[in-house]
Amino acid sequence: MFYREAGDFSTTYPQDSQTFPIRFDRIRYYFVLAIAFLVIPFVVNDYWVSAIFLPFLIYSIAAIGLNILVGYCGQVSLGTGGFMAVGAFACYKLMTAFPEVSMFVHVLLSGAVTAGVGVLFGLPSLRIKGFYLAVATLAAQFFLVWLFNRVPWFYNYSATGQISSPDREVFGILVTGASKPAWAAYLFCLVFVMFSAVVARNLTRGSFGRKWMAIRDMDIAAEIIGVNPLASKLSAFAVSSFFIGISGALFFSVYLGAVEVGEVFGIQKSFLVLFMIIIGGLGSIFGSFAGAAFLVLLPVLLKNVLVGVLGWPTDIEAHFELVIIGGLIITFLIAEPHGIAQLWRVAKEKLRLWPFPH
Amino acid sequence: MPTDLLYGAEVVLNGLMAGVLYALVALGFVLIYKASGIFNYAQGVMALFAALTLVGIMEGQIPFSHLINAMFGSEIHHFGWHVPAFFAILLTMVVMVGFAILVQRFIFRHLVGQEPIILFMATIGLAYFLEGVGDLMWGSEIKKMAVGLPQGGSLWVEENTQWLGFGNEDFYGFFLDKLDMVATVIAVILVLALVAFSQYTKQGRAMRAVADDHQAALSVGVSLNYIWILVWSVAGFVALVAGIMWGAKSGVQFSLSLIALKALPVLMLGGFTSIPGAIVGGLIIGVGEKLFEFTLGPALGGATENWFAYVLALIFLVFRPQGLFGEKIIERV
Fold first, then answer.
1. Closest CA of chain A from B49, distance in Å
2. How confident is the model at residue A80 (pLDDT cuts 50, 70, 90)?
3. Which of residues 182-211 of B touch A (CB under 8 A)?
4. Does B116 touch chain A (CB under 8 A)?
5. CA distance B100 to B149
6. What is the DSSP string of A240-290?
7. Coil vs helix vs strand at A114
8. What angle do CA B102, B105, B108 make, to 5 degrees?
């Protein structure tokens, strides 16, 4: 009734090609932004920020990054954990080397460093395809984690081998360290999420994204119609690693504060982010958010219900979580291989016709 | 012979035996991949699940006892009997066949004709599911696998190889693990049996027909459903053997499921579609990582075994994308 194009006329080309062509979508988008920027920072407390908002926001960035590589360019990667570790350690080295520079710069630079590493490990993708590539990216995962464990220069020769983030400021307000205000950490991450989503959305609907999708659908055919596979695959690796690096840097500096690389950025992290984009929807920016929200909220919910309400021991709850996540992934793949994003699309189609279905 | 060379030889021998264990896991992958085109990530978890079930049955544990206790506040743990290893292995095999039927009936029947990557992700989901179920059923503490396999180093080998040192005081003969030697023998028997099964039996021939061409096999009356259940059962059997071997080596625990990841580079070296490839790949990886750790490991800070196999496979693939024995990849538009 209220969700349709009728009466919504585009009179210029920019209007015609905007991200949200339907007015209701546009309003909804600005509404969500307004709530996220203007309401939530004033009402959140420490628990909400550290249990829900920070992981959700940071995983969203990682999911967007991986979605560009897997969902848009079709190059399956299991090296996400390793690349997040690169972001985290780059951020740590920058933070300790240049204490007076703003955190914004550090995080962006960590993303750039990770992009470089991603391109390096993306080089084999020109020869290796499909599963073989997925397994090859495991080399990146294990090698990088090993590297950060074994070379003391990366963790500034600290005795524990851990890295812990010092207090750093943005515009005079602490965003890292133990004494940071919750709203500042939230807003800091939110800015990066917003930036990533806008950049990713516009890249994927522009010429880059079209090239990626051509490579995904059939790389030989894409080559014949004039897409350069070297440039497209490596650019996908670079952009994807850039976002994953940013998320790794935030994960370490803002969310956790102290990191032991084998524990935090192990192979499990790679799978978790991969699950997010499968459940959310491959090849969809909204899907990245939906998947991240789903897999961040589900354990919190399960924990509250099973441990809090039913009083089960936590280890049984943890096993139950595995069963449910595994079961959900299989169910999703069978019922809706395109994930939550597809459900959302179907719902919107229905809404456009509602209340008259024909 | 100089002692360094002898130590090197010992490392190679141990590497070969470790390689056999990798090859055991890789075999399960190849079987399923050949017959159904599914890259079964859950193979490692299947080994873990089989080992857990075997130990649980032998000890007479009550399945899901932790869960039942948590839900009803009861205090049940064991039936109070012990099952002999042989019967327990048979019972576990029955469980694995049941698992194969369930997987086929509830998952892969609904995913026929999907892209390979979707199938792969479904098996990742299956791996999580199975791991959770295994832990819920049998508890997640580390268990001992006591099926009567020998443990420790073999004195016999040590004594009979001491003469190789030619009076060198530093050399005490080769140190070989008895368990590794048993595993090697069992793996060789298993491979021979699998080859004989797929070459000379009716079911084996049908399996190869399905692997060759699904539709052609269907048109001459081979039941895909039956063959897939069969293949998953055989893979379950291989997983059980691998689970027993690895479980006896390092205890039945979560890290057992990670051997699947170790089997991946083995597969990439050998090619996804070749049974001999899995064996040769396993041996190359086993020897390669032990030798690399022996020669360059100390200089690089140790623990290179974590990544060596993957990097070796990665470099190898750049030059030969289909692996050593894999079918040549031909792409058409």
1. 13
2. very high
3. none
4. yes
5. 27
6. HHHHHHHHHHHIIIIIISEE-HHHHSSHHHHHHHHHHHHHH-TT-HHHHHH
7. helix
8. 105
Residue matched to tokens 């041996």: B283
Domains annotated on chain B, with CATH: 3-319 (1.10.3470)
Give a yes or no: residue A214 inside a domain: yes
Q: Is residue A152 part of a domain?
A: yes
Is there a domain that residue A331 lies in?
no
A151 touches chain B (CB under 8 A): yes
Q: What pLDDT was estimated at residue B167?
A: 57
pLDDT of residue A322: 84
Residue A198, token pair as written in the block: 């806008």
The Cα–Cα gap between B68 and A263 comes to: 31
CA closest to A151 among chain B residues: B301
Q: What does the pLDDT read at residue B159?
A: 64
Mean pLDDT for A232-250 is 94
Q: How far is CA A110 from CA A88, A95, A104, in A?
A: 7, 10, 10
Range(s) of the domain holding residue A160: 23-265
> A148 to chain B: nearest residue by CA?
B301
Residue A103's alpha-carbon distances to A208, A329, B209, B333, in angstroms, are: 29, 37, 61, 48
Higher pLDDT, A224 or B5: A224
The nearest alpha carbon in chain B to A327 belongs to B129
Please check whether residue A56 lies inside any domain of the structure: yes
| Whole-number pLDDT of residue B165 | 59
Q: Which residue of B has its CA nearest to A332?
A: B122
Q: Within an 8 Å CB–CB cutoff, is residue A329 touching chain B? A: yes
Q: Which residue of chain B has the CA closest to A313?
A: B70
Interface of B with A in 118-137 (CB under 8 A): 118, 120-122, 124-133, 135-136
In the predicted model, residues of chain B with pLDDT beneath 50 are none
Q: Does B107 touch chain A (CB under 8 A)?
A: yes
A145 touches chain B (CB under 8 A): yes
How large is the average pLDDT for residues A28-39?
A: 89
The type of residue at A260 is E
Put simply, whether B176 touches A (Cβ < 8 Å) is no
Contact A334 B110 (CB under 8 A): yes
Q: Which residue has the higher pLDDT, A98 or B160?
A: A98
pLDDT in tens, A245-261: 999 999 998 888 888 88
pLDDT of residue A49: 85
Note whether B136 contacts A316, CB cutoff 8 Å: yes
Which residue of B107, B140, B333 is in closest CB contact with A315?
B140
**Considering only CA atoms, which of A50, A75, A69, A58 is closest in space to residue A110?**
A58
Q: Is B318 on the interface with A (CB under 8 A)?
A: yes
The more confidently predicted of residues B48 and A306 is B48
- State the pairing for strand pair A258-259/A173-174: unpaired
pTM: 0.85
Number of compact structural domains in chain A: 1
Note the pLDDT of residue A211.
93
* Contact assessment for residue B14 and residue B180, using Cβ atoms and an 8 Å cutoff: yes
Question: Residue B1: its pLDDT value, please?
Answer: 53
Question: A119 falls in which pLDDT band (50, 70, 90)?
Answer: very high
The pLDDT of A161-187, averaged and rounded, is: 82
Here the ipTM equals 0.79
